[in-house]
Amino acid sequence: MQPQDPPSKLCIVSLGNTPNNAEKRACSAVQSCFELNCEILSPEPTPDFALDISRDQYNSMEILDWIENRFPFPDKWILGITNVDLAIPILTFVFGEARLGGRSAVISTFRLNEEFYGLTADTLILMSRIEKEAIHEVGHMMGLTHCLDRNCVMYPSSSLAQTDVKSTKLCPECRSSLPPWCLTEPFGQD
Amino acid sequence: MKSAVRIMVVDDEKIVRESLSVWLQKFGYEVVPVEGGQEALELLDSEEWSILLVDLKMPRVDGIEVLRKAIEVKPGIPVIIFTAYATVETAVEAMKTGACDYLIKPVDPDMLTLKVKKIVENQNLADENVMLRKKIDTICQFDEIIGNSKPIQKVLETVSSVAASDSAVLITGESGTGKEMIAQAIHRNSERRYKPFVAISIGALPDTMVESELFGHEKGSFTGASNTHMGRFELADGGTLFLDEVGEMSSKVQVDLLRVLEEKACYRLGGNRKIKTDVRIVAATNRVLKKSIEEGTFREDLYYRLNVVEIHLPPLRERGDDVLLLAEYFLKRFCMRMNKKKEGFSPEVKKIFLGYKWPGNIRELENAVERAVVVGKGPLVQLQDMPFGSEQEDPEEKTAISLKGIEKKHILQVLNKTGWNVTRSAHLLEIDRATLYNKINNYGLSRPKNQH
Lengths: 190, 452
Prior knowledge:
The structure holds two protein chains of two kinds. Chain A is α/β, with parallel strands linked by helices. Helix content of chain A is 28%, strand content 17%.
């Protein structure tokens, strides 16, 4: 399910109060892996429309629908970064969500933060996790599915341990599955 | 995670089935969202599915009904039931009906990933198992046993009739006649073919190790036993144990083996846990065990335990033209292995093959052909490529030649080389002339007519 045409740009937009520099870090991380022009858009408010009151969580699918309506530019891909807790109805939470081969994705910093687990905040760790999740979701937009290689950024993360173990690189097999227009040389940064 | 895994997600709530489908698609699975139980039942029969993820509460046809029908139509299909309204009763009902899991919505993503992954891995293993079993079945019955001669055909008939039974078989025959091949053929054509075939050559092991190898040992049971070790009886569980060179067993091992065969259980050395053994015994020997019994070196009761059916393998010299078929088979095999081209054997080589007594039997033939492929040049294997040498002599005579015979031949060769110059010949042979004259007389050697 690869995208047909390259986007003119990947636009990164914060939804609500996201950590300082999160968009910039996500932008440079994505550019280290993929040949994409990146632009940081003006922040948008917290996506309250997607709040599921019974769970006190935000439906990531609804946020993707909203992103596509709010930015109706077929040649632009949008990556949202939010600080709210994301979930889909069947799962207790998701770190992020993307349309496979589509033009919208969203990641949440809510569970990437050490404070969520009762630990002391650590900006370095948080930024590293944001970078990995951003690359991972953009990888899905590129049509990549999950990878079995634990070091590959496309390895599925259902826990932070998995996120922390994997690198910001794509494994050779995932790189070879990418459309040729989005490859950077050499392999992405560690 | 690319795979041919097809998952059906059945839920009447669009947002649930679609979000789950999208989530699973990212693992590379092919996912089909289905909006209700009725639709699921219709699709169930017409297509192949790896896993069904079914919501419990749905209008008209609920999850339990889908599960029941799925198991009826496709026994063994993994069905995961999930629900937001979990009760002990529904969980018990689902599991009793045959669900492979029961999950409560919302599900922890890590848990769902693991469950689906585990099912996929199990299915891959099951598929691999089926594929390997098919492969075992396609290994032709007696493909590797080559020969059209009456004696070998008679052996194969016996193998064919005895394979299906569980009786112990004693294979006798000279060394190198292919006793292990026959044992494997018995195993491959038996009901035990999907289980292990374990071979042990008792003659190759010192007495002290035979018991440990056969029955295993516990850690620390003797000096050097640093780990627990499974015996061949345990390793062959459900399969066939091939005991080669049983005639070499010490009387102590014979007693122990007899006990295991009678009790169908053994103890590891140093262990006190009885280990049940379900193995078919195929034994082999190149000795005449009846003679060993008479001499008191082999137990008669063990002999009758091992020899329910006896298969005697004929030596190669009694197998007529089989030697040529075998030679061709080995030639092809070695040519392929060494990447060489040989069309066949020269008529002289074939003649030698048929006349030679092959004391080492098939093993000797195999080695001879391998040597010929290594050293030979040209499309045909020639006499000089064979270990019998380039002289057109009877190889049997050569192998049976006496020391005197060799001396006579050598003296004659030297004399012929020097044109029967006795002085030069004596010099080359490093003996004096008188001794050479004596030997010429003793051996009755005479100068060929054309050298006078």
